[in-house]
Fold these 3 entries.
Entry 1:
Amino acid sequence: MKDVNAQDHRRLLLNTVIREHVERVIKICANQQQAAEALGISRTTLHRWIKRWNGSKISEEEPQP
């Protein structure tokens, strides 16, 4: 049981770091296309992540490239 809780905690921390990084990159870039390029992902993936994050808690979402 302890391993599962630790794994969930690590996943939550990683998802939080990813989301915060993406949000910072979006603020720095002129538009979402440039942000996606800076992140090394497609604009479609960026839009999908934003849509998920806007409608749910971070702990429930894992970005899928």
Entry 2:
Amino acid sequence: MKRFESGGAQPLRVCLNENARPVLYYRAMPEPSVPSETEVRRERTESARLDNFVDGAFAFAVTLLVISGASLPKDIAALEHALRGIPAFAACFGQLAIFWHGHVRWRDSVRLADRTSLLLSLVLVLFALIFVFPLHLVYASFFSGITGGALSPDFAVHGASVSALSALFTCYGLSYACMAGTLALLFRHGARHGRLAGEDAIFVNVSTGVWSYYAAIGLLSTVIALIALATGKLWLIAVAGFSYGLLAFTHQAADRYRARLHHELPP
């Protein structure tokens, strides 16, 4: 038997004897490379370090929201005053938890540890540490406004100028859009390079759309706040705030998109 072989997509010729017809075999694609145990261990270590850093950064952002301020209350009056900030603190905590959980779901579904994932995760941490300041001001001002100063009394919005409120909602909207947009980019990168299939691929694609929708609402609120600044109309500030009510349609839109992706799956 004679055998001739060449690399790439060239044919492999096998002859059984001198009079037999040659049989040609073609390599359709190169064999996939299997990562070594060292590479797998290194990727797991990098992923764990990145996750720990992101978790720690979000925890630090939460500590910036402590209801008692820079020091512990020293008497009942100070304690009473600090407790009035609990609703605003809880709302801020919940908002940060949503973004943190988005990163957790990305890690659980994608499990990438490449340079792009590292960079986007660090950008998310940066925006989280910036987001905490306008986040606290917005929720504290909101609870102070709807209760007439009974809650979060240090953040009264009565008498605030249109320019001040516009600056507040602009900072909040941009921070919100940047964080949601970063998560959308993480899921989009995972959809392209995560080697996903079936339900995992559907979840990642739906998550990309959901976070993109969140980012679009943040940008919409920012644009409305800037229009309020340019026109001097106070009622537009309320529109900028209530535009986040569009988030209520997120699950409905996500369910429709998920159903369409299920329909496109091969039988």
Entry 3:
Amino acid sequence: MPDTTITEDFFALGDDGAKPGRQELPRAELLARVSSLMQSCEGCENVRVTGVMALDRPDEKGCNWGFTLWLDPAGVAPEVYGLAYAQVIATARESWNLQPEPEPAREPAPAAPMRIWVDGDGCAAAARYVLFRAAERRKMQLTLVASKLPRMPTSPYLRALQVPRGTEGADNPIVREVAAGDLVVTADPALAGAVAAKGARTIEPGQGKTDRKGFAEQVDRALGKA
């Protein structure tokens, strides 16, 4: 049977001959030292420790990594390295802690794509045409909400929602679903105020009745580089 005794020769001793408190080690060095302990055991000379399990907080004994080791056994039978496992991990956990590792920088979540909401009951056909063209050109989602739906081009970027006449306030789908940065086209001051409170931008569709080119420029300015 392989001899799996682990001696104190692997640890630095203090001046009084006693082992110092746990030393914090970077992950790579901790793995190297635990591997050395494992390889000191007869029959485990080629076994490598490739990973340890960090704990969220130190346990009651003050160790901040767990009893699980990831091993590269290099062909060594489990019944051989298994004899050394318990002693290796107990000795290592008494001697070393895992140095805290900085959390990887997290990339900010991408901003939600801007959407266009149209209060269709107060939007003339000429203005709707400009808005439909803008949404398709920019590949943006446009939702027209109205009590009486007009004919709309078939497009993956255009949809329509029919609501009862007189739908207002929180019952209006635009108010419920609009998000900061969206564009709302409405001639209703109350609706404009409600969506502005949620961070949406608003424009009035009135200019589209008489000046399609001017309204198109207004829409482009409102959409910016979206």
